[in-house]
């Protein structure tokens, strides 16, 4: 091979890798010194990706010149020059915020939108800088000052780039090519029952860290052992055998541990009399981790979660998960949840229902939402969007699912509210699906052996038998499944004729049950879409589900009505899935009070 070609390949490898290298997630980045890049971003709608491909459909950012894309935000050199875009003259939308709910013509838009923000920086030579995105749905190409930082896929997990040495003193600009086009081989695939909100839907931060810093840590109770804190601390750039100090002043803990020489220190601290975290008493401790000249603090709750036979044990005591499902969407303010204000509103509605538990369906919700659950005392089922008809035999699809699962677990591994990692929802039976999901379950346990692993399994009916014998159940800690008796099959008053046949002697946590009602539409209980029909469904479903000896929880579908492109009835739905117990105007439907009452009674029983 001639020398020139060899050099070219080496350059390509370096630049190519650099373009796709992403800084692995900095734990608790919000606690770091940072500026927020949230606010009004200019945007350009680009359905034919003119800002990315030249007329021969070659990507500008892989051309020799690297010039020509919308990302370089070129200024006109002379008045005769042809430039067919301009961010300064472009409209703006709020970031964080999906674009669908911010402009009428974007409500159903699926494709590329370019977003640009300008910001001032004053980078110091002895610091490291990280550009962080809470989430961009679905594929993000990110550029800083006209240079590509890299690409991220996955609409609900954070990602970040090391931008040390790439910031200018003074004005900088970041450009994101966000593309929410659904594709069969992605995670999720093309077929979902939720709105495909596109764009930068969560925070954007520029964080500053010491060059040698604490990049990651896990500080939690060992599985089933309230007397031992276990985990690790990861150091970047530090002297390999740097010491680490962990202090939890209120628990009388101050431990100094040595790194293992590879920048990682194992945590193994005996503790006595920790006030354990629970929904009734969501105790969070101030935890401080220091090493060298870096220090990071966090608020962490300590609890144990495990199963024994058909019981779920929280801190060693049997618990019933009085739950409700949520999408990451606040119907009152259309679009993705965008601030702790609307997240707190949703979780307060769950508390009003007497919940001690929420299913954050069907994808990772924001870190802020999970931290609120820690603070407010709600147990959490967290989930990746391995939903329905995934491309089970595509290796890249599996890698994508595993990466999203890993990022979710990395991000939330210190959150006491999270007790269950869910690897998917209602995935149709096949050998390739069993292999795919079994690998995900194994990966989950490898990443975190302290929490339960589950998924919404397949269920089928034979006569009056409702049968759960999904082979995936063997790989999971809970038997969880969605059953819509009274809505998609049978009438509410006929449910007592049916019985559950469950193959596994494990705790049963129903992941979905429910039916639709248009708030304010009233009639007799046999009239579908009325509040009375939905109320009757809940009144009949609760005793029906209670016939299962192993029932240890449920998350009825769903707290509030939510947008879905699959719900076209012009009067009753109008692109809304109406299974909410609360309408998009905040009105509680009659069924809300049936579930609330059941949970009140269940709470007494489990005191
Ligand atoms: C399914 C699915 C949900 C969907 C619900 C429904 O079980 O998991 O995402 O919204 O049913 O049909 O309303």
Structural account:
The chain is an alpha+beta fold. It has 3 domains: 20-210, Jelly Rolls, CATH 2.60.120; 213-303, Immunoglobulin-like; 307-605, TIM Barrel. The chain is 18% helix and 30% strand. It contains 7 helices and 34 strands. The strands form 9 sheets. The chain has a 7-stranded parallel beta sheet. A hairpin with a 2-residue loop joins strand 21 (311-314) and strand 22. Helix 2 (340-352) packs across helix 3 (367-376) and helix 4 (395-412) packs parallel to helix 5 (431-447). It starts with a helix and ends with a helix. The relative contact order is 0.10. Residues 4-19 have low confidence and may be disordered. Alpha-D-glucopyranuronic acid binds next to loops.
Topology:
Blueprint: H1 3-20, E1 33-36, E2 39-45, E3 92-95, E4 112-121, E5 127-133, E6 136-137, E7 139-144, E8 147-153, E9 159-162, E10 170-179, E11 199-200, E12 204-210, E13 213-222, E14 225-236, E15 243-248, E16 253-258, E17 264-270, E18 285-291, E19 294-300, E20 305-308, E21 311-314, E22 317-318, E23 321-326, H2 340-352, E24 357-360, H3 367-376, E25 379-383, H4 395-412, E26 418-425, H5 431-447, E27 452-456, E28 460-462, E29 465-468, E30 499-502, E31 508-510, H6 531-545, E32 551-554, E33 562-563, E34 576-577, H7 590-605
Parallel strand pairs: 23-24, 23-32, 24-25, 25-26, 26-27, 29-30, 31-32
Antiparallel strand pairs: 1-12, 2-3, 2-4, 4-10, 5-9, 5-12, 6-11, 7-8, 7-10, 13-14, 14-17, 15-16, 15-18, 18-19, 20-21, 21-22, 28-29, 33-34
Bound molecules: alpha-D-glucopyranuronic acid.
Task: Label this structure with key terms.
single chain, 607 residues, alpha+beta, Jelly Rolls, Immunoglobulin-like, TIM Barrel, 3 domains, seven-stranded parallel β-sheet, six-stranded antiparallel β-sheet, 7 helices, 34 strands, globular, binds alpha-D-glucopyranuronic acid
